Amino acid sequence: MGEQKTPVQEKIKSYFKDMLADILIIYGEKGFAPFKRPLTIAGPSLLLLYAAVYSPITSKLAKTQRSIISMEAVAQYADEYESAKMRLTGLQRRLPRIADKGEWLNYLLTETSRNAGVSIESRSAQNETEVSGYLVVSREVSTTTTYALLGKWLADIENSPIFVRITDLQMSRQDSSPGMVKASFTISTVFPRLGGGGGS
Amino acid sequence: MAKAAGQSHLGIYISPKEICISQVKIGKASKPEVEHLVKFPTNFPVKEGMLRPLSLNHEFFNEKAPWLDSFKQAVKRVSWGSSSAVVTLSQHFSILRYFVMPAVDRRFWSKSIPLESKKYIPVSFDEVVYDYCAVPSDGGKKLGVLFGLTQRKSVEFLTETLKSAGLTLAAVEATPLSLERASGFLDSEGHDSKGYVHFSENSSYMVFSHSGYPVLYRETETDSGGTMSERKRLDIKGAVQFVDRYVGGKDYKAVMLSGDGCDVWQGSVAKEAAPIPVETWNISALMGLKDNDAAALFASAAAMKGRVPGPSLPDISGVSTAANLEKKVQSYVWNITFLLGGILLLFSILGQTRLFMASSKVSSLRNKVLNVPELDGLDPDTIKSKITTMQTGGQVLQGLVSDVDPFAPKMSAIADLIPAELWVTGFSYSNPFSLSEAQSAEREFRISGETFLKGQSKSRLVDAFTSAVKKSEAFKAFTPPFGAVDSTTEEGGVDSPFANDPGHRPTTSFAVVCRLKRK
Questions:
Q1: Which of B54, B61, B3, B69 minimizes the C-alpha distance to B30?
Q2: Alpha-carbon dihedral of residues B441, B445, B450, B454, nearest 10 degrees?
Q3: ipTM for this model
Q4: Quick check: A198 pLDDT over 50?
Q5: What's the rounded Cα separation, in Å, for the pair B492 and B223?
Q6: Among A22, B95, B299, B491, which is most buried by a count of CB atoms within 10 Å?
Q7: CA–CA separation, B203 vs B199, rounded Å?
Q8: CB B156: neighbour CB atoms within 10 A?
């Protein structure tokens, strides 16, 4: 069963039906000529209304809505992102700066060995490996010194506020020089990758 | 009497005998007031006897016609209030027929109605101008058509004549339409169920209409010397039957008589029309006329065209039809334009409202995302992946920097804990980074040492040292469940470069191994 139409709906429907029929009849009998004059005024008026009022508002609205969708997405994750970023930044503060990548380990070894009164017999070239977005940098050094001085030196190195670790160490007693030990060890640190490191 | 707004016209009645020009004002309470009325004879020699329809047109509407000068003088003589004129042609110069035909779609009216009208109008359509109005009847099965026509040349001549007199032809209609307009406007109550007869001098004018369309119109002229018995022959019954044949079921409630001697006529007409009652009324007075002259009545009725309510009636000239058509097209185009414009404006207003609401939302959102400009324009998936990467990176880094297990304190602890009978000969320590799943190498610290002791005493001391190491704070990382500290002892002697020295005491080795498997 069709939906019951109100008299007003019927009137509107019949008005438009008659209008369409009349337009078709007039067009059929007289062609486009009778429509020409009114259309030359009505068409540009509508175009003007569309271009000057409707179009700017709708395009502005569409732009704003796109911006809202984008901002809503960002806002939804903003807290989580900020907290992750803050945590990562805090942790990265404990790493040496990437700008110091070439010199930092060397500087640390030199400074701490001088403080501990240990002379470095040899030091290897810096070894760099990229792992999971981090740059792992290592240097191997060897020295012959007393057990106590070696311990002091290593303690100085490990007390660095910047992250560094003794990743490998071999030490043996020097039978030929009583009281002396020969040690070679590797210290390593991690640099955040260029562009932020870790998370970027 | 309702009033309809419209342009003011002069009404010009043209018959072979006389021409009448009238200017009418619709006054207070919609009462017509005749402002100017000019009537003059045409001096046209009317032939006696039966005439073919439209046969007089050529001769009458001719440049040599005797009425032209009189007409021009009549127009000049009065200061008319309008230059637009509606001409009503007597039945000598025009034909008006009402007929019923099978219903056809409106699209085909322009072709099928003229074709159908040829059955009822016995003239050649080659040189005529016509107009028609049609309404569906009999529940849409039929079409009632009012068809009017005249000679094309007559209309052209009229147009030029009026133009030369300083007037513009607004429409041309047939006299029955004027009479119907006058009676319909002046006696609107129950008008559709009444027939009208107007007497003027020795002529009678009878109109029986349906829905504002004259179905039957009859002009009868009786000789002035005629008797009353001759006059009686109005044939009201025949007229009603004629209408009934075309319209079907038309129930007339009254026959209205007006004009000269209508009281005298009433009795005879009442007998003829019975059982339809017959009444008299004064159409001329209501029209604002001083006498019952039919020419004045028709001219005045023509002057009211477009200013009184009523159905659209045929305009034979096509002038008003063209104007109406233009108006109709304009109205449709403007209606559509207003509709579309209205829709555009409505959507614009809605858009503006939504924009206003959206802008306030943007402001509040902007505050939330102020600290993360680097996320601007990124989609949720990209942001999520960015966060995940950062969190993973953070976890890895956290694991790395929190895994603090310095080596130096272990050296110190060993120095403190090792018994005097044992000594360390070497360390081997490995504590690689674990930045990924692939780098799951374990941490190992091997303490190698020697002693002069052997057997149970060596084992006891090495165990004691191992146990002390386990308990030491510096070796806490190697505690279970992931860590372990074990020791090994060997009974064999250790090769020494001093083995051959006198007083050399052989030693044996031991090792304490600390291991930690990554979590």
A1: B3
A2: -80
A3: 0.70
A4: no
A5: 171
A6: B299
A7: 6
A8: 14
| Strands B18-26 and B32-41, bridge-based pairing | antiparallel
CB atoms B372 and A166 under 8 Å: no
3-state secondary structure B443-473: EEEEEEEEECCCHHHHHHHHHHHHHHHHHCH
Query: pLDDT per residue over B452-484, tens digit each?
Result: 888 888 999 999 999 999 999 999 989 888 899
Q: How many residues does chain A have?
A: 200
Q: How far is B77 from chain A (nearest CA, A)?
A: 39
The residues pairing with A139 across neighbouring beta strands, listed in sequence order, are A187
For chain B, first and last CA: distance in Å? 105
Asked which of A48-52, A166-170, A176-180, B206-210 is least confident by mean pLDDT, the reply is: A176-180
Tokens of B119: 């059955």
Cα B391 to Cα A83, A91, A121, B77, B370, distances in angstroms? 9, 12, 42, 106, 21
C-alpha span between B222 and A78 (Å, rounded): 105
> Both tokens of residue A155?
């303690």
Q: What is the pLDDT of residues B400-423, one digit of tens each?
A: 888 788 999 999 999 999 999 999
Nearest CA to A174 out of A140, A196, A150 is that of A150
CB contacts, 8 Å: B112 with chain A: none
> To probe the interface with A, which of B411, B495, B514 has the most A CB atoms within 10 Å?
B411
pLDDT score recorded for residue B110: 82
> Are B453 and B421 in contact, with CB atoms under 8 Å apart?
yes
Which chain B residue lies closest to A165 (C-alpha atoms)?
Answer: B406
CB B54 within 8 A of CB B151: yes
A123 CB-near residues (< 8 Å, 6+ apart): A106, A109, A139, A140, A141, A142
Residue B78 CB neighbour total at 10 angstroms: 14
DSSP string across B103-142: ---GGGHHHHHHHHHTTT--S-STTEEEEEEEEEETTTTE
- Residue B183 gets the label, from left (phi > 0), alpha (psi -120 to 50) or beta, of alpha
Separation in Å, CA of B133 to nearest CA in chain A: 14
B300 contacts B206 by C-beta, under 8 angstroms:
no
pTM summary value: 0.57
DSSP secondary structure code for residue B157 in this structure? H
- Report how far apart the first and last C-alpha atoms of chain A are (Å, whole number): 63
